Amino acid sequence: MTLDEIREARDRIKATARYTPLLEVPWPESGHRTADPHDHKTSLFLKCENLQPVGAFKIRGAFNMIAQLPKENLERGVITYSSGNHGQAVAMAAQKLGAPAVIVMPTTAPQVKIDGCKSYGAEVIMEGTTSLDRQRRAEKEASERGLTIVPPFDHKQIIIGQGTMGLEILEQCPDVGTVVVPVGGGGMASGVAAAIKLSKPSVRIVAVEPEGAPKMSKSLEAGHPITLPFSKSIADGLMNLRPGDITFAHIRAFVDEVVTVSEGAIATNVAWLFRNSRLVVEPSGAVTTAAVALGLGNIDVGKGPVVAVVSGGNVAPEAFAKYVSTA
User: Fold this and answer.
1) pTM higher than 0.70 for the full model?
2) Do 285 and 311 form a contact (C-beta atoms < 8 A)?
3) Element (H or E) spanning 5, and its range?
């Protein structure tokens, strides 16, 4: 992808995807402390993608791809396979563009995400518990019904759309030294990393995944995408068993380091984000501040501010209450 393509995508999605704020917060208590917390060279900033219309960054890539489909494809409809956030984004984008939408979700999907998809008029099909289960079902439905598949991450136009966030970060924080991003299948991490590295190569990019789903870490060790036998995490948006081929190539080219965080650290940071910024963040969106708090990623705060991407806020109320009250 090129910077021009990412800039074109920003123009394409600007009426639908929000230009989300960058919020300054105190450095997590268990992480690096600075002598002067008001020194912007050592500040922590949150890129609040949980404030997108669908509650997550996924609207960027979904709208960018669907908006470019031929009219006949839109009339037949689109389909995707998603644990929730991408499904909601596809449902919203399809509704805005006048296309029917079908979302294949895991049987373990949080009700809040199922309801979100249905609220935009999408048909929801429940299938299996893994990304491969729902991908197979989506491909079957697409073949039988003539639907266009909108992949959750491993597609050039999806990645380009997610990359628009990287342009915003550079505009909002021109002297940024490090950007910390969540990584599941890798669409957002690779898009943001590409946008930033192609614009300002000196910025360090750290990607974070849960210990229970280390598909990108293991793939990088192997030198090629590998499939995990299973995954388990409260960060349901990051439980992919395998990274994409395109996203893996981008992560290897543009991301400086991939780290993992524990389930306890993720839950603690859902609570920390609420208490320190009054943000409702799902576990997948809290992995970045968890990594910062743990001092992971070899972040050198002397090289500029740190931006942590808060990727989404679609969390079941009962689960959120548990994280906040017990952490």
Assistant:
1) yes
2) yes
3) helix 3-13
The mean pLDDT value for 38-47 works out to 70
Q: Is the pLDDT of residue 32 over 50?
A: no
- Position 94 pLDDT exceeds 50: yes
CA atoms within 13 A on the CB side of 165: 36
131-146 per-position pLDDT tens digit:
889 999 999 999 999 9
Catalytic residue, chosen from 58, 113, 197, 215, is 58
Domains and CATH numbers, the chain: 3-56+156-326 (3.40.50.1100), 59-149 (3.40.50.1100)
Distance separating alpha carbons of residues 195 and 307, to the nearest angstrom: 15
The tokens describing 290, both together, are 């968890």
119 is a catalytic site residue? no
Whether 2 shows a pLDDT value over 90: the answer reads yes
Catalytic annotation present for 47: no
Instruction: Give the type of residue at 40.
Output: H
Gap between the Cα atoms of 325 and 304, Å rounded: 34
Alpha carbons 284 and 235: distance in angstroms, whole number: 4
| CA separation for the pair 68, 320 (Å, rounded) | 37
Q: Is-contact 239 82, C-beta < 8 A?
A: no
Bridge partner list, 102: 79, 123
Rounded CA gap, 305 and 80, in Å?
Answer: 36
Q: How far is CA 215 from CA 139, 162, 194, 209, in A?
A: 23, 20, 20, 8
Residue with tokens 């965080």: 261
**How many C-beta atoms surround the C-beta of residue 207 within 10 A?**
32
Number of neighbouring beta carbons within 10 Å of residue 199: 15
Percent of the chain with pLDDT over 70: 95
Pair of tokens at residue 146: 């003539």
